[in-house]
Amino acid sequence: MHRATGLLLLxxxxxxxxxxxxxxxxxxxxxxxxxxxxxxxxxxxxxxxTETYLCVRRTIGAETWITRxxxxxxxxxxxxxxxxxxxxxxxxxxxxGPATGTRMIFGSGVGTGALQLPDGVxxxxxxxxxxxxxxxxxxxGDAPLTGTSGVKVxxxxxxxxxxxxEAILGGTMDLTIDPGVSSQFGRCTMPAGSHxxxxxxxxxxxxxxxxxxxxxxxxxxYNREYSFDSQTMDPVDITFPTSERLDIECVYxxxxxxxxxxxxxxxxxxxxAILFRYxxxxxxxICLN
Length: 289
Hints:
globular; seven-stranded mixed beta sheet; Jelly Rolls; 54% strand; five-stranded antiparallel beta sheet; disordered N terminus; 23 strands
């Protein structure tokens, strides 16, 4: 994704249970009114030692409220980002670069599990809105790689009491990672009245730890080891009565022998926390201050 939007999301999917995140992701779930159904997906082929992006757009004709999101993310899927646009582009699959719509509703990295939203909370897609699936695909092998990537969802009949949720990305794009072990710092201010219900780290291959905390109080939301191949999310239950800044510390072990900066490629780095909150503000999905 380009620096102007600076987006790289993460979150993901699995089987239904009472936990917000199920690390046992799977792509085959029964469809139907009480089950999962495909929201958007595409089949792709990537040549050896190649990174590429695909954009998939689908216009949704009816109002849709989503209570569970599950990625279809086979080997080669670096990240999956799902956002909303107001239409104007043709539906279908195009070659693209990093891209996002005006509002992010979901994202996943490697190895994350299913997002089950809290009771009474859902992601809303308005009639006529387009879903934009942005796929970052990376084939590190010496033979062509083929797969099908996308997301499945579980929906609910809307009621007047449903609260709308959204996803945002907090952190920084100002990275200068020297050789050795070092920390980089980002931030994101949460508006008064917002409720954080899930969060997790996203870095690349050099990341080894991330800490997310509330700046004013020092409350630690999580502080744990990080693995690019297991980008799990944490269930969170925090309401912010007043505006609060979240601090994101990303720790790296740079064994490349050179300085590494911010970038979309897996060989560059990122320092983001994926944050799921309600009520939705419908603001820009990147939060860097």
